[in-house]
Amino acid sequence: MSAYLVRNPLSSGQFLLATILLLTAFPTPTQPPRQPAREILITGLDYAFQAPDSASPGPVLLRFRNAGQVRHEVAVALLKPGITLTRVAQSTAAGGRPDSLIEGVVGILIAGPGATALGSLTTEFLPGRTYGLVCNFQDAPDKPRHMALGMVHELRITGP
After folding, report:
1. How far is C-alpha 152 from the geometric centre of its chain's CA atoms?
2. Is this structure's pTM higher than 0.70?
3. Among 48, 82, 52, 81, which Cα is nearest to 67's?
4. Which homologous superfamily does the CATH classification assign to the domain defined by 38-157?
5. Which pLDDT score, from 0 to 100, does residue 150 have?
6. Mean residue pLDDT across the chain
7. Are 137 and 143 within 8 A, CB to CB?
8. Cα 87 to Cα 103: distance, rounded to the nearest angstrom
9. Concatenated DSSP letters for the chain?
10. Mean pLDDT, residues 10-20
């Protein structure tokens, strides 16, 4: 059995250049370009949200500003089809857990009085779905949760 020694006639620099040329000559399939995320500002008041009632599907960047006098949060959740925040609130008031009514949590943003949350949430709004905005905070242990005071909002996604 004889062995053959094959020498690479290209230097390492030439090999790298040849590799780059091959990769650019035969590009890999790519995803269609994504549309840029639209920014939606959610404003928390004492005790309500100012936010759009509807939005179009696609990528969004959610920001939260607290214009109130106490600390607030916005918890953003994707509701299961056909579920409303009223039903979630009724279930919670009856001692139930809303887990069975919510498909998933997008995230939570928190801001002190007069401040803007340090971060933001990026998500893809799904067509025909409803997202719930809720503040679960309470001003003191013996006070009601902000959601019980009306700090809830439904955001419906319209269009295809």
Report:
1. 17
2. yes
3. 48
4. Cupredoxins -  blue copper proteins (2.60.40.420)
5. 93
6. 85
7. no
8. 14
9. ---------S-HHHHHHHHHHHHHHSPPP-PPPPPPPEEEEEEEETTEEE--SEE-SEEEEEEEEE-SSS-EEEEEEEEPTT--HHHHHHHHHTT--GGGGEEEEEEEEEE-TT-B-SS-EEEEEPTT-EEEEE---BSSTTSPBGGGGT-EEEEEE---
10. 56
Where b means 16+ CB within 10 Å and e means fewer, 84-106 reads ebeebbebbeeeeebeebeeeeb
Q: Where in the chain are the domains?
A: 38-157
- pLDDT tens for 86-111 read 888 788 778 777 788 899 999 999 99
Amino acid at 43: T
Rg (C-alpha) for the chain, rounded Å, is 25
Q: Give the Cα separation of 73 and 86 in Å (integer).
A: 19
Cα–Cα dist 72/90, whole Å: 22
